[in-house]
Amino acid sequence: MARVIFYSKPGCQGGTKQKVLLTAAGHEVVAYNLLTEPWTVERLRSFFGDRPVAEWFNPSSPKVKSGEIVPEKTDAETALQLMLREPLLIRRPLLEIGDRREVGFDVQKIDAWIGLKPADESLQEMSENLMKQDLQNCSHAPAPSHEQHNQQGGCNHHGQQHQKQGSCSH
Questions:
Q1: Are 53 and 82 in contact (CB under 8 A)?
Q2: Helices (H) then strands (E): counts for the chain
Q3: Mean pLDDT of 92-118
Q4: 16-20, 42-46, 71-75, 125-129 — which is least confidently predicted?
Q5: CB-count exposure of residue 18 (10 Å: 0-12, 13-18, 19+)
Q6: Which residue blocks in the chain are alpha helix, DSSP H?
Q7: Catalytic residue (one of 12, 138, 155, 168)
Q8: Pairing between strand 94-97 and 3-8?
Q9: Has 12 been annotated as catalytic?
Q10: pTM to 2 decimal places
C-alpha cells in the first residue's frame, strides 16, 4: 500500500472523508496543514501538472466565490503568488505519493493510481458509500445567505463559529 502525503485544511469534512477512504484502502495517510505549510512557488506548482490555471483554485474560497479573484482570468505566476499569500485559494487536497503529485480528489483517478478498494471486507459498505459521494468539493451544507448570516451570527461549520459576515473560509 502507498504512503500518502496529504495536504488539506484541518477540520474540513471533505478532507476527513478522503483520508478515511484512503485509510480504509490500507494506505498510510500522513496529513499536513495546507494553510501553514511553508510553500515555495516551485513546490506548489509541482502539484498542478498540466492542469489549466483555473483548476488550481479552490472554487469555495471566499475571494473566488465573491468574484474578487477570477481563476479563468489569472495567469500562472499571479495565481501562485496569490496562493502563497492566501493558501485558502489552493484547491484541496494536495497529494504526494512517491515522486508523483496531484491536486484534488478525483475518486476514479486515485483508484486507478493507487487503488481505493477496502483493505478488508468489514470496510466495504463504508468505502462504497464514500466513493458515491462528491469528494472533490466542499461537503458541508450550502452557505447561508447574507441575511441568514446576520440572523444566525455567522455560519457554524468545521467546529468554528464565524461572527463576521462573509468570513466563512473553506
A1: no
A2: 7, 6
A3: 94
A4: 125-129
A5: buried
A6: 13-24, 41-45, 62-65, 76-85, 107-113, 124-132, 146-152
A7: 12
A8: antiparallel
A9: yes
A10: 0.76
